[in-house]
Amino acid sequence: MSAAPVALELVDTHCHLDYEYEGGRTPADLVRDAAAAGVTRMLTIATEAARVPAVQKISDSFPGVFHAVGVHPHEAAKMKLEDLGLLERAAAHPKCKAIGELGLDYYYKHSPPEAQATCLEGQLELATRLGKPVVVHARDAEADLLMHLTRYAKGLASGQAPGVIHCFSGTRAFGEACLELGFHLSFSGILTFKNAEELRQAAKAAPADRILVETDSPYLAPVPHRGRKCEPYMVRNTAEKLAEVRGVSIEEIARITTANATRLFSLS
Ligand SMILES: [Zn+2]
Fold it and tell me: What residues contact residue 223 under an 8 Å CB cut-off, 6+ apart?
């Protein structure tokens, strides 16, 4: 007789349900299949002001879906001054739980670094004023980003959590500095990749009360789904890897990361 399936609950803290998925799969398909895998709640993340209405509509359509509003560093050059006002109004939505994604990306440099810095600062100031955590995108810009994040985190009211470094895949020093500032680290499907030994070490060392899991779907499908578009249900594979790396059960990882996500994003 096989053991009864263990019911566990996971939160995919970072996905893009407004993007295109395989075979025209809709947000309803994604949310249903996620729930069947125990992924009962998720945060769908806006990457530019123009996407906010679509993201908000998806969030409104499903009880387990929440969202964040922000401008990704790739889109920084397109950002208009009035976009900050738009984000501020959108952030008043009851299911908007964070500002982001925001950050710096010097790997692609789709926007010039100066535009990225301006875009980032405006949003950090907004998050501070609204008392919402931020969702940070970091790629090849650790020194500059740390300067911005340090100023931001030190300017917060005591007890306010600064936010999360999404899809964490940085250096050990950067991870430790972010933890020191009070940030959470969120682990994506990269954790399952063969060449990610250094990342697995970081995931093993991070304090239990600061770890989250995410898919960043439709990107970064974890093993064994490589080559396909990622979907929120696949966060289960990342959680299993995180459990293995930390030497605990999947139930324990689900319990911890779900409690962390619920607390950080004030999820209901
Ligand atoms: Zn993302």
Answer: 189, 192, 193, 194, 237
Distance 226 CA to ligand 1 centre (A): 18
Q: How far is the CA of 101 from the centre of ligand 1 (A)?
A: 7
User: What's the rounded Cα separation, in Å, for the pair 249 and 255?
Assistant: 10
CA 214 – ligand 1 centroid, Å: 10
Residue 108 CA to ligand 1 center (angstroms) comes to 14
pLDDT at 63 over 90: yes
Is 239 in contact with 12 (CB distance < 8 Å)?
no
Per-residue pLDDT reduced to its tens digit, 140-185: 999 999 999 999 999 999 999 999 999 999 999 999 999 999 999 9
At residue 1, the pLDDT reads: 46
Q: What is the pLDDT of residue 268?
A: 87
Q: Does domain 10-264 have CATH number 3.20.20.140?
A: yes
| Cα-to-centroid distance, 4 and ligand 1 (Å) | 35
Residues with CB under 5 A from ligand 1 (ion): 216
> Ligand 1 center to residue 170 CA distance, Å?
15
pTM of the model: 0.96
Taking the C-alpha atoms of residue 153 and residue 28, their distance in angstroms, rounded to an integer, is 36
What mean pLDDT do residues 220-224 have?
A: 96
Tally DSSP H helices, then E strands, for the chain.
9, 8
Is 103's pLDDT higher than 70?
Answer: yes
pLDDT band at 6 (very low <50, low <70, confident <90, very high): low
Ligand 1 centroid, distance to 56 Cα (angstroms): 16
